Please model this.
Amino acid sequence: MNTLNLFQLAGLTALVATACAPKEKAPEKKMNILYIMTDDHSYQTISAYDNRYIQTPNIDRIANEGVRFCNSYVGNSISGPSRAIMLTGKFSHKNGFRTNSDLFDGAQQTFPKLLQKAGYQTAMVGKWHLTSLPTGFDYWNIVPGQGDYYNPDFIEMGEEKQVEGYATNLITDFALDWLDKGRDKDKPFCLLLHHKAPHRTWMPDTCDLRLYDDITYPLPETFYDDYEGRTAARDQKMSIIKDMNVVYDLKMLDKEGKIKTDRPDLDEMGWAKVGRMNAEQRAAWDAYYDPIIRDFKEKKRSGKELAEWKYQRYMHDYLRCIHSVDRNIGRVLDYLEKNGLLENTLVVYTSDQGFYMGEHGWFDKRFMYEESFRTPLVMRLPGTARHGDIDEFVQNIDYAPTFLELAGVEVPSDMQGESLLPMLKGEDVKDWRKSLYYHYYEFPDEHAVKRHYGARNERYKIIHFYDDIDEWEFYDLQNDPDELHNLINDPAYKDQIDSLKNELNRLQVKYDDLDMSTYK
Model:
């Protein structure tokens, strides 16, 4: 072999070696996170969970293409504290935000801050409700306090302004605008899209005012609950019959000023809310409500007739707000799909807690009873093997660890939740929790729900009401899913009561929530 051929052979060998060498993998693209949360959306009014009241095709789409959590719960069933739990992965006594009157410490660790450090673009749009201004976000645009449905005020990066339109549409507009024009598209994003709806006072968009007019909703079996054996349930002030205000809540705003209630402060607030409307909005509103107001004045309902009329008005307005939410979620899903983002984005839909749709005769939340303790939760994680229902107990302390693990960020040891990512991926999850802990603090307050804490396992629930009361409740959820029969003094359940009290104590030790004296 001559010298030239040796060089040719060496070159050929080098080329073959280069061709056969394993190629370096492109860095894996991090998953985006879209966390959609409404305020006071009951699981009963999502058709993926319950189709008695309404169809929610866009929320259902997330569930149908992903998973539905069948046992999803909160740690404190009230708006601000629930949001603080979600952000920090810690119960209220650890993040310092126990009631809506507290001040959220924005300097503390939150999952958006940790995602920022990991290279994520973060944004918060909509209802914040944590008293202090947002931290940990590259962009934020929030409604102050509870927000308004019509022509709401927004605080965008510190600048407050009123924006004309309907809140659910506007919050969606701002979120889509940030996704389309405001973010750095070379970075993964985490967007918190928080709707005001369907929070009280349930003011529908003008285009939805006549929706469901032809429907009469079934009265819950427990609507006329007498609260026997349950002092705290009896003493609350969230009764549709007694406490739902016909002016503030049900819009009986007669121009003659003859309809007044025993709460002039609420009457005035009701007028202030419609006073935000522009001429076109107000004309549509009056065209719908004026005949209802005339009928209300003429009929002079009382007793059961009035109670059930109030229930129907409540349900119609509430469900119209849900319809608007679902329609706008469809807009967001369509945007993600059109722009190639749907297959690289975790989509989450939930509420800050559950809500009463007339069960026990109530509206609102707060109690550890199922309707307010339990919350809807559906997630769509693309490229996973898991679809369908997840039956394990999950809680809103778990959201922060889930998002961090998905982003490849180490979950801090002081977070009290557990990542749901293995469940979403269809992995076998061993030693998962078999019980849940709950603690509610906001008393005294408008709705007069006593402070209480408790534990729930697969079959039983125990609750201790404390502070100005010292009473225990115990329920067999298998035999009494409506929680009507307090069995705390039933000797037949002594072993189960003792066992669950021990489990409650174990959870209080685990979560370091033993000193009740600090809450008085």
About this structure: The first strand starts at residue 32 and ends at 38.
